[in-house]
């Protein structure tokens, strides 16, 4: 399970890989309802870890760019899927 301590221990890549595994298990037809609920909870926690890591990385990049008007724009919605 992802927790606040796991958040600091997992890299973005590790959290994403675990999230992909959770999704695969949720898509499996043999997953029970109880397992699916537990996996969903784990998935939302891992998703939060990934989002936090992406937000932190975007902040660092924005600092490096120097907060000037540039082509790099970090949106307020933090939607990294676009």
Descriptors for this entry?
mainly alpha, Helix Hairpins, 67% helix, 0% strand
Our measurement of the CA-to-CA distance between the termini, rounded to an integer number of angstroms, reads 28 Å
Strand content: under 5%
Q: Give the helices and strands as they follow along the chain.
A: HHH
What is the general shape?
A: elongated
The count of DSSP E runs of length 2 or more, i.e. the number of strands, is 0
Helix content range of the residues, please?
Answer: 55-70%
Tell me the CATH topology.
Answer: Helix Hairpins
**Biggest β-sheet description:** none
Poorly predicted segments: 1-5
Count of runs of 4 or more consecutive helical residues: 3
Report what the structure shows:
It is a single chain. The protein has one domain: Helix Hairpins. Helix content is 67%, strand content 0%. It is built from three helices and no strands. Residues 1-5 have low confidence and may be disordered.
SSE blueprint and pairings:
Elements: H1 4-9, H2 12-27, H3 33-65
Helix pairs in contact: 2-3
Summarize the structure.
Its main location: cytoplasm. By secondary structure, this protein is mostly helical. 67% of the residues lie in helices and 0% in strands.
């Amino acid at each position: 399970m992802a927790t606040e301590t796991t958040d600091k221990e997992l890299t973005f890549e590790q959290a994403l890989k675990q999230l992909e595994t959770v999704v695969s298990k949720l898509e499996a037809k043999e997953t029970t309802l109880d397992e699916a609920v537990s996996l969903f909870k784990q998935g939302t926690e891992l998703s939060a870890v990934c989002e936090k890591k992406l937000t932190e990385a975007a902040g660092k990049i924005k600092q490096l760019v120097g907060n000037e008007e540039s082509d790099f724009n970090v949106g307020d919605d933090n939607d990294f899927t676009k």
